[in-house]
């Protein structure tokens, strides 16, 4: 396996140490728990903190998003596996003097089980924490069963918008309700091109032929719409957008925030070409665009592939989207 | 009874240590290739730290053991596989049959709820459930029968289609491969019963 | 070739269109020249603009660095080839009313030839433009022949520090002289792990065995110190730093700015592990660290590999380094 | 004389179009695999745009032609290979021998200076220079001799070690492979002389 690491058992710890050292002006460990990373300058006690637990191996999400105007804490699990509810509980307890807490949960089985466990334990301790389950990946469940869909790159809109809103002093109920509105207006579809290597098994994360791509594959190789021959960017983008447009009805004059996320090895050159085709498609439908995001944010090691996420936005969402954040790895 | 649990987990640890690569390779075929390492990491964390767990009450001791295992394992398997570990403190050596039935029924109930999983979904439940049925149907139990029930349940997972876990996302739904979580569960349960028989015979 | 593009001949144009669309709040084409990208809000006429011409295929550099406090213009060449001096001249002429102009040139043959040509033509038109040749890669020429070295990732320090300094209103001579000081205090060494694919030829950019890495390889596969067996991060990092420490003498208490650059497919997880080992090494020598940069900035398609750059900094450099910029793809 | 240049470049374009893949594949062995496409792109840009270049003065016309070629080619080869294109306007059909010598000597001088390159460095210079020497040594020139001189110079680049261009960074220094820039230059020069002989014979 061609990865530059030290002991396999220490991958996550070594990475977190590097992250906290490299960004020591903005983040720190909640000592002695080296799997719980928090803001260096904590949020005002009157405001609602936002936290999430997630498996690692998908950097920069979510540790890179800790900062003013974004996340308050990240509980980091091992490679591709959710941190245990016990650890998430530690994160929650850290904020128990705040008037409320939002626990974000991306809709993947392990994350949900552990998140729910943490919430139950916190409720036993009378902590006012609410979970928001995030989902957006249209390939993972059909229209009508939105709440069975996986959390994909479009969850980014929730993180960022709630992060800004909570920084602005909004209360727990408003945050959860805004989170649900953002979720309901987000759609994501992804494409896998070639597999990265699991740092644990040393094997390819999925298999895909030299002349094929896989539309709708999840970040851990979960299946979606299926394989097809590779094609040019314009065709792939329009196939994907056709599917998204089948799933959600957009109208003339809607203002969308597009997010083109690279999954690891796909070059920025390609992501920009894809973005060019995406904007052309949207423009054809008279759809307006607000501050798109084009880069690698939710990766699966060195997998090649990308996803397109669209948020149908309100003015409030747009303002929150572009509100400043100090997170080390989130940049509009 | 703390000794019972220590012995049981220690034996399980030794067997898993011997077989974790085999389990990883099952998980490589239908998952992300880490289940053997994950369960080994969980057991290693507790078994080699027993002396540092300064708790004398059996229930609290095992609650801490399962917490440590859960934390070091993480994921779905961490939370689901430690349910039995914690429930096991309900073992009553003077009323083995009844207490084991209780342990199994509450374990199964909790796994179903937490894991949103059913019988036949190709998971650890497919070891617990048939064994529970078997024990329920008999007045006493023989170790050989328990073991062969576990073995056949494990083989049965091979042809199941996964409806939970990563295998559910494969085109094949994992058909043709033994469920890795069921494999490690089978080891832990065998060692559990072996330890019960040891206790009885002492 | 598994890249998501449209016509091969249009790769660069499509990418630039995507880039300019995605960042239309901050950058634009200097119409009708679609290879010359400039700031949307141009620099004050009293200040000294900074520009560079470079081949594409290495994104986000340099187009991603156009913005307040960084570059004023980027002249974009085809994949891996410098833009012609004629185009660079167009970029220079755009700023002829300013009191002076800095043309940054990374020390690679094509860039130097075309940059020098542009400078000669501009001088013929009495434009006050000065070139600053940038080099830092210790593997490409021995100590004593520093000016024969290639421009590597450490040139980033020059871009950023001069970008901030010029925004602060400094004159041409001071910019050039600061640029030289930064250059003289920068050292870079890189490692290639596995090759990306040229979008032109569809072939691997270089060859390297499954169990080997190549220390000192240049961004286009140029040779350096040579191949060796792959090792763990700690050992590779210390081998690299030993070589850098042989080349430059650092002292107790020096304050360095480290930059760990990923070349495309190397994960952020690895870059952070590498950074952790790097900081440990420096700390051993009682060296202090200021705001490191850890991410992918100078890439070669989906090549795996990374470089370590160190700038021995003064207080002024540190302030300039952390001064804010609006560039879409530069983020401390 | 604008017609002379148009014919010459058009013929060169046709030959390169026929051979650019062969040239790319040389560059794939010792460079980044694009030289054939690059020179084709440059020639295509001008040859298929002659009608749009609204300049009647020969020198200005060719200066624009070389500017367009340079822009569309970019890189080291764009700047170096258009030097001859521009110098070629010094051709005097009434004094071919002397004017060709002048064109070659100033081309060579400019390439050396801009390219920081010497004879034997495995580059386009290794076509221009031997040909210049040959022409200089003779009073008149025969097309067959010119062509065979070009061909042998091209073959000679095969065993040179590259000291410029990407091949210089290879472990092999490109030894064993014909220099792609020299190959395309050989084509352009042959067509240049072919056109001269055509002119003379008209
Ligand atoms: N929802 C579930 N219910 C019951 N068992 C499950 C569930 N999800 C996963 N498992 C068990 O977990 C095993 C995989 O464990 P492991 O590889 O450690 O976790 P991960 O899939 O996170 O890598 C599966 O073989 C299965 O037996
Ligand atoms: N410094 C130089 N002097 C003379 N010729 C050069 C020099 N550098 C490159 N060349 C020529 O350019 C050719 C390569 O051209 P091309 O592939 O178009 O450029 P690039 O190397 O930028 O891809 C080489 O084969 C060589 O003949
Ligand atoms: Mg796992
Ligand atoms: Mg697994
Ligand atoms: Mg090239
Ligand atoms: Mg080339």
Describe the structure.
The complex is a heterotetramer, with 2 copies of chain A (332 residues) and 2 copies of chain B (202 residues). Chain A has 332 residues and is α/β, with parallel strands linked by helices. Helices cover 31% and strands 23% of the residues of chain A. Chain A contains 8 helices and 13 strands. Chain A has helices at 11-22, 85-93, 109-124, 155-167, 172-184, 233-247, 268-284, 315-321; strands spanning 27-30, 33-39, 50-56, 73-79, 101-106, 129-134, 186-194, 212-215, 226-229, 255-262, 288-289, 293-295, 304-312. In chain A, the strands form 2 sheets. In chain A, strands 7, 8, 9, 10, 11, 12 and 13 form a 7-stranded mixed sheet that branches. In chain A, helix 3 (109-124) links the parallel strand 5 (101-106) and strand 6. In chain A, helix 2 (85-93) packs across helix 3, helix 4 crosses helix 8 and helix 6 (233-247) packs across helix 7 (268-284). Chain A is globular and about 50 Å long. The model of chain A has no long low-confidence stretch (mean pLDDT 97). By secondary structure, chain B is an all-alpha fold. Chain B has one domain: Serine Threonine Protein Phosphatase 5, Tetratricopeptide repeat, CATH 1.25.40.340. Helix content of chain B is 70%, strand content 0%. Chain B contains 8 helices and no strands. The longest helix of chain B has 29 residues, at 2-30. Chain B is globular, with a radius of gyration of 16 Å. Classes of the chains: A alpha/beta (332), B mainly alpha (202). Chains C and D meet through strand 4, helix 2 and helix 3 of C and helix 2, helix 3 and helix 4 of D. One adenosine-5'-diphosphate sits between chains B (27, 31-32, 34-35, 38, 75-77, 80, 111, 115, 117, 123-125, 164-166, 179-182) and A (81, 109-110).
